[in-house]
């Protein structure tokens, strides 16, 4: 993975920079010791590692602002980091960069039941928000599988999803307000406890911007009343195509389940061995369908879904009898990644989205590629929204297996784009899919995105080397070839 | 200026914008111009009408996606969706009559450019939340795209969100993809009679936080309720609070009964079925009550529980009529025409607890002097200007539509 070349003039000033940053964040807040810095060398994408030049762990928005302003003045790169659970290398440090860890921002600032929202610092975990409001019967809907560890600030930066986003949306659909610090230290507040923004939708733009536009220091999210009832159905099929058809029929019938997941045989077996969820082991495809709402609604929808499943050729249907069994159904799915980790020394998790009707074609091709590359693959799939997570099994200690896994992965993602899908459904581009962006976007598309980056960070100091395959200078991107006349208002910055 | 450019293909639209760039000539980008009266008036610009970039190019009900040209009339989309019992779940309003025109003129491009949403906003989000991807032409005269044709995608910046609600100031759309969802099988509306505004806020918050899952919550003071075409509302003889429930038949009946029991503590209740319910929520959605006359009309977005308090502050200084949607979070307000449109009073009252106020209807002369959109804080305004410049460095697309700040200084107009 090619990262921007370290700036030797910055590295030469390391000691002085550390001293200056320590004046902003005193005591333990600046980490200079090289052994201690190794703790930050990677995020959830462990294949790439790079200790940062320095790590800074601020506690207040004033400190964040001062750190960014100082780094901006000094021309020092900054990589923001939440809990470090990103699967795309979004928080991969830079050798000449400051790693800005937001873990100390760990307080919930306000719980507002009247307006059904929570104001939290960015380091609060996703699950921490639900736990803060569940006694009152509320929850925070987006639930990425890493929810016990991942931070809400990181969720905003990555626009995280989860198994329930089919019905309840991604982070972006559940966010009301942000406080954010720009690279020059400017603090901006967007939104609040009301709906929709008054000017350009900066809330929507910042969500999923992968730490390239600003550092989030406060988040306001919507909370929802916990559904009265939730019920899980495990539906087994003898082939993946029948399972795919069942999913299409359910949605076509007007039912949007709270979650609808699919697993193939290798994933079912790995998950069952790990979590003992009661999954059938003699099927090729398993659907986990969750229905929620009033008890009467759940009864009604369960009946419809069972009928569709039977008609689609389901060979086994199991309905959760109680809450413990429903959670057990999910335990296997939510542990699918670590479960696969037990059957292989290493695994590489992909994240493309495809139009669902292309599922059979894509899985057939993945099976062919699997043979070609000589690497096994297990597939878990957010079936409702077409978000596919093939897990490529490899062993990093075997010569060239990582390279083969990466090549296999990029073939899968290019295939997703080829059938009308996208490179990433919820994990982000980061460094991982950066060099594949050209498969989905042409130069004009990427240039316009980078011009937006220039509007926030003209010097390119915030999380550079992520998302964009080629870094252009903002001046070069802003150049316009105007044939006639001068520019009409020369004092406006042009990017 | 009377010139109208009316491209029939995306290539022609690209040529039109490139031509304008070459001459540094401003463009007023519209669909069918049904919401042209929303925002600051645009002067001395060539009109670029995208109404002929119309037609639905892709509809996959099982994938929940639809793609169409920006000039596609909403009624065409809604009719096709209805055949498969689907809908644009954010309940697109039709502001045609409110803005002095006909109904049924709105296009998909206009809807997304203005990021509108109806009463279901509280449950289902706004247009932005269902805008999956686009092709467009920037003010640099470059065709570009963003997003995709699948419902879950985080590849690159979410420029769909940025362009939603940008009123054509960043780019001209040529192709749009939106998420569609199933239409509810059954709808019931519970009415609660005679609540004061404060009590209505509490009742709506109680409903929103309970198990009945309302998809719309509105409160009409007596004078507004009287104008409804629905007898159960108009004949109430006082204020009416309305709560809509949607979903599968048995579930709606059950939740409706439970909600009526719960609301019995607040006041007498009634319920609206099928046609009446539909008529009522269309009135709320399209602000029918404020269409007649020459009142100036404001749209306030505030924290829902603070709705009544915001109105309380405004009424101390300003005589107005009003009603609440979005559980109190959306206030529609009408007042007799004033030169300042009451902007300072209204925006000060909103600022106490946060939110924004948009002057939706006023004469062009007023909209040229009173900022129709809530002026953002300086840092956000500066950032927004830089974003504008990143798409449209010459300031050619809908100049001044959202803010006078993006107009060239006097005497230097292109």
Draw up the topology in text.
The complex is a heterodimer of chains A (495) and B (414).
Chain A: H1 8-12, H2 14-24, E1 30-31, H3 34-37, E2 54-56, H4 61-74, E3 77-81, E4 97-101, E5 108-112, E6 117-120, H5 126-133, E7 138-139, H6 152-158, H7 165-168, E8 175-181, E9 187-191, H8 202-206, E10 215-222, E11 224-225, E12 229-237, H9 240-252, E13 259-264, H10 265-275, E14 285-293, H11 295-311, E15 316-319, H12 323-334, H13 336-343, E16 346-349, H14 359-373, E17 377-382, E18 387-394, H15 401-418, H16 437-440, H17 443-456, H18 474-478
Parallel strand pairs in A: 2-4, 3-4
Antiparallel strand pairs in A: 1-2, 5-6, 6-10, 7-11, 8-9, 8-10, 12-14, 12-15, 13-14, 13-17, 16-18, 17-18
Helix pairs in contact in A: 9-11, 10-12, 10-13, 14-15
Chain B: E1 4-5, H1 10-23, E2 27-30, E3 46-49, E4 56-60, E5 65-68, H2 74-83, E6 86-87, H3 108-114, H4 121-124, E7 131-138, E8 143-147, H5 159-163, E9 171-179, E10 181-182, E11 186-193, H6 197-209, E12 216-220, H7 222-225, H8 231-234, E13 240-247, H9 249-263, E14 269-272, H10 274-286, E15 296-302, H11 307-317, E16 321-325, E17 330-335, H12 343-351, E18 355-361, H13 364-369, H14 378-391
Parallel strand pairs in B: 1-3, 2-3
Antiparallel strand pairs in B: 4-5, 5-9, 6-10, 7-8, 7-9, 11-13, 11-14, 12-13, 15-17, 15-18, 16-17
Describe this structure in words.
The complex is a heterodimer of chains A (495) and B (414). Residues 483-495 of chain A have low confidence and may be disordered. In chain A, strands 15-12-14-13-17-18-16 form a seven-stranded antiparallel beta sheet, sandwiched between helices. A five-stranded antiparallel beta sheet of chain A has the order 5-6-10-8-9. Chain A has a four-stranded mixed beta sheet with strand order 1-2-4-3. Chain A is α+β, with helices and mostly antiparallel strands. Helix content of chain A is 35%, strand content 19%. Chain A is built from 18 helices and 18 strands. Chain B is α+β, with helices and mostly antiparallel strands and 414 residues long. In chain B, 31% of the residues lie in helices and 23% in strands. Chain B has 14 helices and 18 strands. Chain B has helices at residues 10-23, 74-83, 108-114, 121-124, 159-163, 197-209, 222-225, 231-234, 249-263, 274-286, 307-317, 343-351, 364-369, 378-391, and strands spanning 4-5, 27-30, 46-49, 56-60, 65-68, 86-87, 131-138, 143-147, 171-179, 181-182, 186-193, 216-220, 240-247, 269-272, 296-302, 321-325, 330-335, 355-361. In chain B, the strands form five sheets. In chain B, strands 4-5-9-7-8 form a five-stranded antiparallel beta sheet. In chain B, strands 12-13-11-14 form a four-stranded antiparallel beta sheet. In chain B, helix 11 packs antiparallel against helix 12 (343-351). The mean pLDDT of chain B is 96. Chains A and B meet through strand 9, helix 8, helix 9, helix 11 and helix 17 of A and helix 1, strand 8, helix 5, strand 10 and helix 6 of B.
């Amino acid at each position: 993975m090619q990262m921007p070349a370290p700036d030797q003039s910055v590295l030469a000033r390391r000691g002085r920079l550390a001293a200056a940053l320590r004046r902003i964040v005193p005591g333990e807040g600046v980490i200079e010791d090289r052994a201690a810095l190794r703790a930050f060398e990677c995020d959830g994408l462990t294949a790439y590692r790079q200790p940062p030049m320095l790590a800074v762990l601020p506690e207040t928005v004033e400190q964040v602002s001062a750190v960014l302003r100082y780094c901006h003045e000094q021309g020092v790169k900054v990589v923001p980091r939440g809990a470090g659970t990103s699967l795309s290398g979004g928080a991969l440090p830079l050798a000449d960069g400051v790693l800005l860890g937001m873990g100390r921002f760990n307080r919930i600032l306000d719980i507002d039941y009247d307006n059904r929202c929570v104001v939290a610092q960015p380091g609060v975990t996703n699950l921490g928000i639900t736990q803060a409001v569940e006694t009152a019967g509320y929850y925070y809907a987006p639930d990425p599988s890493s929810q016990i560890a991942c931070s809400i600030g990181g969720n905003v930066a990555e626009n995280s999803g989860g198994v329930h986003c089919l019905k309840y949306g991604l982070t972006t659909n559940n966010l009301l307000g942000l406080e954010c610090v720009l690279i020059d230290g400017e603090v901006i507040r967007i939104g609040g406890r009301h709906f929709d923004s008054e000017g350009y939708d900066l809330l929507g733009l910042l969500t999923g911007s992968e730490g390239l536009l600003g550092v989030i220091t406060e988040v306001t999210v919507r909370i929802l009343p916990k559904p009265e009832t939730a019920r899980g159905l495990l539906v087994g099929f003898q082939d993946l195509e029948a399972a795919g058809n069942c999913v299409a029929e359910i949605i076509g019938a007007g039912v949007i389940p709270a979650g609808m997941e699919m697993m193939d045989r290798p994933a079912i077996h790995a998950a069952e061995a790990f979590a003992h969820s009661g999954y059938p082991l003699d099927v090729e495809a398993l659907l986990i369908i969750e229905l929620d709402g009033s008890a009467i609604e759940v009864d009604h929808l369960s009946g419809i879904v069972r009928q569709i499943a039977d008609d689609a050729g389901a060979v086994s249907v199991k309905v959760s009898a109680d809450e413990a069994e429903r959670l057990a159904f999910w335990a296997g799915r939510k542990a699918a990644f670590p479960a696969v980790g037990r059957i292989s020394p290493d695994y590489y998790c992909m994240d493309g989205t495809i139009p669902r009707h292309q599922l059979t074609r894509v899985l057939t091709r993945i099976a062919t590629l699997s043979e070609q590359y000589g690497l096994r693959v297990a597939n878990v799939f957010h079936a409702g929204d077409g978000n596919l997570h093939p897990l490529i099994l490899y062993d990093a200690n075997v010569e060239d297996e990582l390279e083969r896994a990466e090549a296999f992965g990029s073939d899968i993602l290019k295939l997703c784009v080829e059938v009308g899908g996208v490179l990433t459904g919820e994990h982000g581009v980061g460094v991982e899919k950066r060099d594949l962006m050209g498969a989905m976007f042409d130069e004009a598309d990427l240039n316009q995105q980078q011009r937006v980056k220039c509007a926030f960070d003209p010097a390119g100091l915030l999380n550079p080397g992520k998302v964009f395959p080629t870094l252009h200078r903002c001046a070069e991107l802003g150049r316009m070839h105007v044939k006639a006349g001068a520019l009409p208002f020369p004092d406006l910055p042009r990017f | 200026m009377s010139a109208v450019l009316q491209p029939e293909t995306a290539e022609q639209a690209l040529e039109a914008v490139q031509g304008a760039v070459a001459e540094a000539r401003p463009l007023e980008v519209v669909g069918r111009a049904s919401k042209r009266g929303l925002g600051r008036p645009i002067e001395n610009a060539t009109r670029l009408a995208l109404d002929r970039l119309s037609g639905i190019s892709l509809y996959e009900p099982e994938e929940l996606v639809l793609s169409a040209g920006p000039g596609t009339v909403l009624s065409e989309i809604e009719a096709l969706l209805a055949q498969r019992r689907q809908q644009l779940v954010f309940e697109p309003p039709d502001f045609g009559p409110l803005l002095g025109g006909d109904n049924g003129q709105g296009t998909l491009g206009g809807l997304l450019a203005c990021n509108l949403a109806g009463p279901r906003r509280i449950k289902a989000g706004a247009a932005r939340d269902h805008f999956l991807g686009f092709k467009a032409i920037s003010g640099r005269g470059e065709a570009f795209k963003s997003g995709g044709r699948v419902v879950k995608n985080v590849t690159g910046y979410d420029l769909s969100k940025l362009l939603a609600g940008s009123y054509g100031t960043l780019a001209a759309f040529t192709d749009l993809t939106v998420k569609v969802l199933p239409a509810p099988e059954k709808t019931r509306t519970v009415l609660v009679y005679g609540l004061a505004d404060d009590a209505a806020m509490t009742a709506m918050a109680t409903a929103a936080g309970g198990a009945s899952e309302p998809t719309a919550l509105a409160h009409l003071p007596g004078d507004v309720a009287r104008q409804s075409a629905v007898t159960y509302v108009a004949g109430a003889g006082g204020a009416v609070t309305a709560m809509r429930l949607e979903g599968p038949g048995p579930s709606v009946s059950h939740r409706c009964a439970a909600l009526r029991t719960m609301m019995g503590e607040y006041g007498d209740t009634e319920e609206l079925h099928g046609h009446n319910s539909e008529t009522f929520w269309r009135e709320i959605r399209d602000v029918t009550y404020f269409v007649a006359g020459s009142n100036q009309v404001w749209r306030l977005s505030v924290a829902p529980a603070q709705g009544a308090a915001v109105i309380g502050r405004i009424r101390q200084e300003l005589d107005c009529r009003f009603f609440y949607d979005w559980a109190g979070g959306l206030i529609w307000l009408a007042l007799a025409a004033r030169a300042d449109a009451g902007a300072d009073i209204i925006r000060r009252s909103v600022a106490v607890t946060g939110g924004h106020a948009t002057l939706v209807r006023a004469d062009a002369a007023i909209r040229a002097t009173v900022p129709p959109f809530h002026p953002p804080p300086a840092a956000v305004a500066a950032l927004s200007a830089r974003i504008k410049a990143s798409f449209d460095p010459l300031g050619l697309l809908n100049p001044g539509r959202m803010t006078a700040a993006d107009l060239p200084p006097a005497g230097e107009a292109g």
